[in-house]
Amino acid sequence: MTVSRIVVAAFLLGSLAPADAAILINEILINHSSNLTAADDDREFLEFRSTTGGVEAMAGLTFLYIEGDGGNTGVIDFALDLSPYSTGTNGLVLFTDGLTAWDPAADPATPINAVEFVNDDGGGDDLENGSSTYAIVTGFTGAGGDDLDTDNDGVLDATPWDSVVSVVGWTEASTSDEFSYAAALGGTTFTGNNGLFDPDAYVFAPDGEFAFDAFTTDDDTLDDGPWVVGTTGGRALNASDLVVGNFNPLFTMTPGSANSVSFTPEPGSLAMAGLATFALLARQRR
User: Fold this and answer.
1) In what helix (H) or strand (E) does residue 170 lie, and over which residues does it extend?
2) Strand ranges (DSSP E) for 179-248?
3) Positive or negative CA dihedral for 245, 274, 187, 154?
4) For residue 177, what pLDDT is reported?
5) 189 pairs with which residues across the strands?
6) Distance (Å, rounded) from C-alpha 281 to C-alpha 44?
7) For residue 206, what are the CA distances in angstroms to 26, 150, 270?
8) pLDDT tens by residue, 201-238
């Protein structure tokens, strides 16, 4: 897929959390989708934010990537202990599997932590794409590799944590062996993308929360961004009615900096191509 065919899927009201949550998922890139580099090595990142907008310790918190594909459904591919870390004075913290210099540049106040991302093959430097659940939990007593859905029916058989403070997820297909557990954990599982694309990224924006395909428009060999979505003519999935349309203006991902740009649906764009409307799966816990 080329930059000229950027596919954008926007889903509102995604990663939801209780009112007392201090740390939320703010921005994720799991597939940098560049035509310059075949692999995702060093380019993926996780960004979290504090609800106070300032320094917050993350003692007792763990980030989990739970797979939702086929026979590996429910397996914790990646568990990251957040206890040693804290957000910066701007309320943000960034985790990367290698790259620390971005375009656009990160806010100097954001701590940037290089960690090894792991997929279901035990390999580093790559978070697996596809059906998935991303969660920040408290009191985690499990481990990476644990199977939380032993019969692969989309219902968790074990929840080795005290509480979920932030969660978002999606499925890549509508088949019976593709699952995300986000809705059951108090967030939203986005399914309107089924059959269209696999999301590459997630962003919390001022007017909602979005998952989409993201592509870099930069031609340098660093492959460090910017990752842009929202191009006119690209497909977008509006979570208010899950009808495909366009989004304008352009949105650039900002690893390590505040997400200050809102997505605005283009007038008349939500009736494109006669695509079917899906039911909105949204659940809010504040």
Assistant:
1) strand 163-170
2) 189-190, 201-205, 208-212, 215-216, 227-229, 236-238, 243-245
3) negative
4) 77
5) 169
6) 27
7) 11, 38, 21
8) 777 777 667 777 665 554 444 444 444 454 333 334 43
Sign, Cα dihedral of 259, 23, 102, 10: negative
107 with 87: CB under 8 angstroms?
Answer: no
d(CA 79, CA 118): 9
How far is CA 191 from its chain centroid? 14
Q: What is the pLDDT of residues 124-153, one digit of tens each?
A: 557 777 889 999 999 999 999 999 999 999
- Dig out the tokens for 226 from the structure: 């910017």
Question: Could you tell me which of 113, 76, 78, 77 has the C-alpha nearest to residue 93?
Answer: 113
Tell me whether strands 45-50 and 92-96 are parallel, antiparallel or unpaired.
antiparallel
Are β-strands 201-205 and 23-29 bridged in parallel, bridged antiparallel, or unpaired?
antiparallel
Q: Which two tokens stand for residue 30?
A: 């799991």
For residue 251, the cross-strand partners are 229
Instruction: Please confirm whether the linkage preceding 104 is cis (ω < 30° from 0).
Output: yes
